[in-house]
Design a protein that fits this description.
alpha/beta, three-stranded antiparallel sheet, 12 strands, 40% helix, binds pyridoxal-5'-phosphate
Length: 369
Amino acid sequence: MSFGIDDLPVRDELRGKSPYGAPQLDVPVRLNTNENPYPLPEPLVERIAERVRHAARHLNRYPDRDAVELRTRLAEYLTKTGGYEVALENVWAANGSNEVIQQLLQTFGGPGRTAMGFEPSYSMHALIARGTGTGWIPGPREEDFTIDVAAAEKAIAENRPDVVFVTTPNNPTGNAVPAGTVLALYEAAQAAKPSMVVVDEAYIEFSHGNSLLPLIEGRPNLVLSRTMSKAFGAAGLRLGYLAAHPAVVDAVQLVRLPYHLSAITQATALAALEHTDTLLKYVEQLKSERDRLVAELRALGYDVTDSDANFVQFGRFADAHEAWRGILDRGVLVRDNGVPGWLRVSTGTPQENDAFLDAVRELKKEYSA
Ligand SMILES: Cc1ncc(COP(=O)(O)O)c(C=O)c1O
């Protein structure tokens, strides 16, 4: 037997575990990781090259540790689109919102503390909790994937978690959480502990509704987490950010590694933010394609969860993994998130969506034949 992870003196909670990651398979149509299907427009690529060239001349020095220019531009973007004015001191940035979440759990979770999320939801919340030594408590969700306020309040009161995650729009189900629900959960979390409530808005630009950014007013324990991986079409950039009371921004700096955000990352993100208007036009296109996917899947007889994201959860399958395989055999990679009976498809280009719809149409025929 070969020497492996479990032969090393790794932490007990990591024993027997596998790393997170969707399969990166080489298939013609990949609709499994909620990326934006459109490459960045050429003028933006040129602007990135220009900004990176400039940054390269200073790579002998550490980057701006506080990413002041970038956070200022992110605050402007949030103010313009979020319906609430924020400034540099309300915003923090890191390498993807995964790192933002990690820093939040390092700050407010950790050994002897717990975090709760309403499952099924973004599985990295639980995995980052594990990685930071934070206990994980799965919270309840209804059959239709909404959060029942009374059941969630009860779970918070009973478990008194230190951190509560609310993902809206939720991944993998796609549905948004009403502001009233988030407010009720915030109140419950304050009464129980008080604890931090992290609203993960990774997909908010695709929503029919508005950002919950204005809710941070007067609520210092509420944090909004965002990313440039989805709407900005820049998953490869690795840039996530948060908006919160300035005290939260000060607190996460207690755990962030010095110079965590490279000068290249900062330069690239700044270039992308200069092209916000163009990038958000792709969002409009993707939203109408998402709505088309929902309508056509329903017309084919599939159950579809209402989607406010750039992906759609559809079912129901007696064996979701077998259906996943059937779609893959037709050249389209979707995601099996382990939600019994359901699969998730990311919105692609119109051609990719057509290929997906052809595949599920055939699958339906095969099943009902
Ligand atoms: C709900 C949610 N939050 C956060 C992320 C992480 O995004 P990133 O680390 O690329 O910013 C994802 C990615 O799929 C997500 O679905």
